[in-house]
């Protein structure tokens, strides 16, 4: 600890020591008035140059280093030794002025503390002053001539060594003080020097010869020449400064891309919405250095804000999401949300907002950016950052970064919301099951009602709950029996529920009582209770309405179908529980049969919850129904999931062939129950001949439909050989069983669909060509597929085996077949499952297979749970053998084309030239021979061009071709193309017209390939153009970096279906006749050439007919000698 304190004190002591040294040097010898008057102009000039060099220093990765020492060298070597004291003060004043300028214009990377600013000022001043003094003293001790003149080299033999020693001392002291500043500021010294070593050497050494040269010739130059010489020094300083700025910008862009990648990975690592929003803020604050941040997210229905994160001055604002309107920049937030477009205000926020018709009453916000969060064209929310510092104005780069981060954040938030919804759904189902268990555990009426009220509040997150029940036998009275979260006045004067007036079978959802006319009579009462929305759930059993459960909410909200379905399920459970409690309360315990039925109902719920087999569920239903009613035979039938066919699921007591006849249920009691959804009870079948009996001994029947809402799922039919074998209580009992069976049946069918989906997934895995191995956290093989045989492994022998066991066999080649070099690599991979996972890149390896050599590509993918914990890893293997063979075949084909076509065609060209030369020009057949050989040569050149095109296409697609780029003018290329195609154009009476912009800049291109590109496009235009037409070649700059070149023709044009595929290899437009046919490679070559130049190529329609083939080429970037380029600040709204 004491050693660290000593280092801190030493670092704090360094600037004070330097300040004392500066004072000593300045007091060393004061300049006389005579010297000051004689060299005043030069002194002022060198003060200015020193300050200028410091202001326009070279930016390093951290900090800046200027070539100000060059000014000191020039001043010292160009003036007599008498001016040395005056020049020391000149260096001091220039260094001081430059340091102050850096701090004022914030070019110096210092903090807001005045101590830091003074410290930085001392270091800069010491660097230029002490280095000048030390080097000057050494030079004077060496007794070298001063000022430096050309004659000095002849009079003084040791001048070269003196200059070298002088420069070495100057640079050493200058650089040493720079190093001390880095050390005192606790920056990574070694990293800074390693990163910027070349740039530091250029700054220190490159301008030094220029200073010595200027000093030598200073006296021999005229005043204009001397000014030009000094301007050269200024140009060097500005050039180094501009070069460093360009490098810094490039480094900044690279860092931004890396940061964006880190941001994306960071957001993907968070699935909880709250932690995700905070992670987004952390990344934004690191990117833009902001501590004012707002992010709001809509709910699923886009009706209200679901969640928000507000950061003000680095602290989280915990205000409710409904109070966002109180934020100072809320009008700007609402503008972005309303228009779903980004908004960028660089400065003057209040006035710029006023131009948009917004009133922003906050003068402390100096710059503001807001961007919407969009997913598939749907707005999910927005996020915004604000700068409250006058010296921090957001740039266009910051605006671009915000949009990029917003794209990634939108997807991450969408995924987090989906995860939250699914998690919430699971939690609701757990709560629902728990409620069912609670309700099933008691039949005491008061306990059931209290449980229903508390459970309704929990599962719906309602602010208040009311329960109305027909608790007595009086059907026209619906009293409020329980409530929570409501005032005593409401309980004493409870309004009548609305749903019974409309549809007592469906929930009544009112999103906003102030806007929904159905709640007009209740508005005054509900507003007094601070209620904005409500849902009424009718409680019923079969056709009997038990009451209404009402849930009240203090905010307006839209209720989704999924949520209402969940509430319906809860209402069903509540209805069942309430009905059970009522039955228990009203039925005399003396009736043993009723007691047995209640016990049976309490048991069947648990039994049904314990199984998901549909047949077993129906057997349980039928068994309990027969035992509870003392019936003798019975049947349970259900419609299939398509509601098109009735199936007998379970039956007891009937002969085996009873239900073979499908018409057996026609005109039966079961058919009536299905059609009407009502319970039918026949006390004496003999008195009702129009109802069929299923067996001859039947005397009484009971049929209960199985209902889900209004939908009939099936029926339960019981028969007895006794007259009046079933009572009204029995009917009610079987109806309760049927109601409980609905959820169990739905669960069973859902499980069946999931099982079938799993089986289909297994079939897909088995049909995959890729080999798969899934290893769990214990290192055991949990899943394989048959394609693993391509690695010469037997899937059945690997399944459920420990990887360590598979590796432990002495002759095991398991790890090599998986593409690992050693057993330790596999063990390290398994260790990562428990101790920390690392990223693994795809790996291509060669496997010696019985069928020959195979190329296998392996991917290692981690398998994570909901908490993003590693729970296993998946190895995926792709057979890349065919791709490798295709690549090799392509290379062989290319070599064959070059060898077998180029040489013969070259020989033909030579023969044609000899033939042309052989015939004398005065011979009468010479014109015929010349035209014939010329046509042949053009055809051969075209064929050679296609060979070269095919070769270049192959090289470009494989990435093996290098462009020979150089600064080139486009005009000569256009003229060459016109000259080459002129004979062909003349044959068709087509004119090729160049239209090149007069200010067309130089291009940085491969001249040969661009000429062939343009040749292909113009030749293609000639091919499809009508006779007596014109083809135009047009070129003009699009901006400072690219130009656009168009080839316009009046041909038939390109159909829209071909515009996206026309540049693919071997693609030609079908149905074109009377034109020269090609092989479809020319336009593919054109696209590859343009892509190689980082340009674009496309086709447009020409008016009135024809096509425009357009492409872009890069402009040559010529660095200016004068550092006068400035970045213009553009304000965006």
Description:
The structure is a single chain. The protein has 1133 residues and is α+β, with helices and mostly antiparallel strands. It has 7 domains: 2-252, no CATH class; 269-423, GAF domain (Beta-Lactamase), CATH 3.30.450.40; 442-586, GAF domain (Beta-Lactamase, 2-Layer Sandwich), CATH 3.30.450; 592-759, 2-Layer Sandwich (Beta-Lactamase); 771-879, 2-Layer Sandwich (Beta-Lactamase); 882-961; 963-1114, Histidine kinase-like ATPase, C-terminal domain (Heat Shock Protein 90). It contains 33 helices and 30 strands. The strands form 7 sheets. The protein has a 6-stranded antiparallel beta sheet with strand order 5-4-3-8-7-6, with helices on both faces. A hairpin with a 2-residue loop joins strand 12 (533-541) and strand 13 (544-553). Helix 1 crosses helix 6 and helix 4 (68-78) runs parallel beside helix 10 (208-217). The longest helix is centred in the first third of the chain and has 46 residues, at 223-268. The chain starts with a helix and ends in a 19-residue tail after the last strand. Residues 107-112 and 1121-1133 have low confidence and may be disordered.
């Amino acid at each position: 600890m004491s050693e660290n304190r000593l280092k801190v004190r030493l670092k704090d002591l360094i600037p004070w020591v330097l300040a004392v040294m500066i004072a000593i040097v300045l007091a060393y010898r004061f300049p006389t008035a005579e010297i000051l008057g004689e060299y005043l102009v030069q002194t002022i000039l060198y003060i200015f140059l020193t300050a200028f060099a410091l202001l326009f220093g070279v930016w390093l990765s951290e900090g800046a280093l200027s070539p100000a020492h060059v000014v000191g060298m020039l001043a010292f070597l160009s003036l007599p030794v008498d001016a040395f004291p005056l020049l020391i003060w000149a260096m001091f004043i220039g260094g001081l002025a430059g340091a102050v300028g850096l701090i004022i214009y914030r070019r110096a990377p210092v903090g807001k503390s005045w101590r830091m600013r003074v410290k930085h000022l001392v270091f800069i001043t010491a660097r230029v002053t002490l280095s000048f003094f030390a080097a000057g003293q050494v030079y004077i001790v060496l007794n070298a001539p001063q000022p430096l003149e050309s004659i000095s080299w002849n009079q003084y033999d040791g001048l070269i060594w003196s200059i070298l020693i002088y420069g070495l001392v100057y640079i050493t002291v200058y650089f040493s003080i720079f190093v001390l500043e880095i050390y005192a500021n606790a920056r990574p010294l070694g990293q800074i020097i390693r990163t910027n070593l070349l740039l530091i050497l250029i700054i220190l050494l490159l301008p030094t010869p220029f200073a010595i040269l200027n000093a030598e010739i200073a006296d021999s130059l005229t005043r204009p020449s001397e000014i030009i010489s000094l301007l050269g020094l200024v140009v060097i300083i500005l050039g180094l400064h501009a070069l460093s700025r360009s490098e810094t910008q490039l480094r900044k862009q690279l860092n931004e891309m890396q940061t964006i990648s880190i941001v994306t990975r960071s957001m993907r690592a968070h699935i909880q919405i709250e932690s995700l929003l905070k992670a987004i803020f952390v990344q934004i604050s690191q990117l833009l250095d902001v501590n004012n941040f707002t992010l709001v997210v809509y709910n699923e229905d886009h009706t209200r804000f679901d969640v928000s994160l507000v950061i003000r001055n680095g602290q989280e604002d915990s205000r409710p999401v409904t109070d966002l309107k109180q934020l100072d920049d809320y009008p700007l937030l609402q503008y972005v949300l309303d228009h779903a477009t980004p908004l960028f205000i660089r400065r003057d926020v209040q006035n710029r907002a006023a131009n948009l018709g917004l009133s922003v009453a906050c003068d402390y916000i100096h710059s503001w950016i807001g961007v919407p969060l969009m997913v598939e064209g749907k707005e999910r929310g927005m996020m915004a950052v604000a700068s409250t510092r006058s010296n921090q104005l957001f740039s266009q780069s910051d605006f671009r970064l915000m949009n990029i981060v917003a794209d990634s954040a939108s997807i991450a938030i969408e995924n987090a919301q989906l995860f939250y919804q699914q998690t919430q759904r699971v939690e609701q189902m757990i709560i629902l099951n728990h409620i069912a268990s609670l309700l099933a555990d008691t039949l005491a009426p008061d306990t059931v009602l209290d449980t229903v009220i508390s459970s309704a509040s929990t599962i719906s997150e309602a602010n208040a709950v009311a329960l109305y029940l027909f608790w007595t036998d009086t059907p026209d009275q619906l009293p409020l029996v329980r409530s929570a979260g409501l005032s005593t006045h409401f309980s004493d004067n409870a309004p009548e529920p609305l749903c019974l007036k409309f549809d007592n079978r469906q929930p009544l959802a009112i999103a906003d009582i102030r806007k929904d006319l159905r709640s007009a009579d209740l508005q005054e009462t509900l507003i007094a209770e601070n209620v904005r929305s409500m849902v009424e759930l009718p409680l019923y059993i079969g056709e009997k309405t038990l009451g209404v459960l009402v849930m009240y909410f203090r905010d307006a909200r839209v209720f989704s179908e999924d949520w209402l379905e969940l509430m319906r399920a809860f209402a069903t459970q509540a209805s069942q529980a309430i009905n059970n409690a009522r039955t228990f309360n009203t039925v005399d315990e003396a009736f043993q049969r009723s007691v047995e039925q209640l016990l049976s109902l309490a048991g069947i719920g648990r039994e049904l919850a314990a199984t998901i087999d549909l047949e077993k569920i129906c057997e349980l239903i039928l068994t309990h129904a027969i035992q509870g009613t003392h019936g003798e035979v019975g049947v349970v039938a259900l419609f299939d999931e398509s509601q098109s066919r009735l199936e007998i699921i379970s039956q007891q007591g009937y002969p085996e062939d009873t239900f073979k006849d499908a018409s057996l249920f026609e005109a039966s009691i079961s058919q009536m129950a299905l059609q009407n959804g009502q319970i039918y009870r026949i006390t004496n079948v003999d008195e009702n001949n129009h109802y069929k009996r299923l067996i001859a001994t039947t005397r009484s029947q009971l049929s209960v439909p199985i209902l889900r809402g209004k939908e009939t799922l099936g029926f339960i039919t019981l028969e007895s050989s006794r007259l009046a074998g079933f009572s009204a209580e029995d009917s009610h009992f079987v109806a309760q069983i049927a109601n409980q069976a609905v959820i169990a049946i739905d669960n069973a069918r859902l499980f069946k669909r999931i099982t079938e989906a799993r089986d289909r997934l297994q079939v897909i895995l088995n049909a995959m060509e890729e080999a798969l191995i899934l290893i769990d956290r214990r290192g055991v093989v949990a899943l394989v597929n048959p394609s693993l045989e391509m690695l010469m492994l037997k899937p059945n022998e690997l399944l459920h085996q420990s990887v360590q066991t598979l590796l432990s066999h002495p002759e095991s080649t398991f790890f090599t077949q998986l593409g690992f070099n050693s057993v330790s690599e596999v063990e390290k991979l398994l260790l990562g499952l428990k101790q920390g996972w690392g990223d693994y890149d795809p790996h291509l390896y060669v496997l010696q297979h019985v069928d020959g050599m195979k190329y296998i590509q392996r991917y290692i993918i981690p398998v994570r749970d909901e908490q993003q914990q590693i729970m296993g890893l998946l190895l995926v293997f792709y057979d890349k053998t065919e791709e490798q063979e295709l690549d090799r075949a392509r290379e062989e084909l290319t070599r064959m084309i070059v060898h077998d076509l180029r040489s013969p065609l070259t020989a033909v060209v030579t023969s044609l030239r000899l033939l042309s030369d052989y015939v004398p020009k005065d011979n009468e057949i010479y014109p015929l021979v010349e035209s014939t050989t010329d046509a042949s040569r053009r055809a051969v050149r075209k064929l050679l061009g296609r060979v070269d095109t095919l070769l270049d296409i192959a090289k470009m697609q494989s990435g093996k071709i290098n462009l020979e780029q150089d600064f080139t003018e486009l005009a000569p290329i256009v003229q060459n193309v016109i000259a080459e195609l002129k004979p062909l154009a003349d044959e068709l009476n087509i004119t090729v017209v160049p239209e090149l912009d007069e200010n067309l800049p130089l291009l940085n291109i491969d001249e040969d390939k661009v000429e062939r590109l343009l040749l292909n496009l113009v030749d293609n235009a000639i091919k499809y153009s009508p006779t007596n037409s014109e083809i135009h070649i047009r070129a003009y700059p699009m901006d400072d970096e690219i130009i656009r070149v168009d080839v316009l023709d009046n041909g038939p044009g390109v159909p829209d279906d071909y515009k996206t595929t026309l540049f693919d290899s071997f693609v030609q437009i079908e149905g074109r006749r009377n034109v020269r046919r090609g092989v479809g490679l020319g336009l593919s070559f054109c696209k590859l050439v343009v892509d190689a130049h980082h340009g674009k190529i496309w086709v447009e329609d020409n008016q009135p007919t024809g096509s425009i083939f357009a492409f872009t080429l890069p402009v040559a970037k010529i660095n200016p000698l004068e550092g006068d380029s400035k970045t213009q600040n553009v304000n965006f709204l």
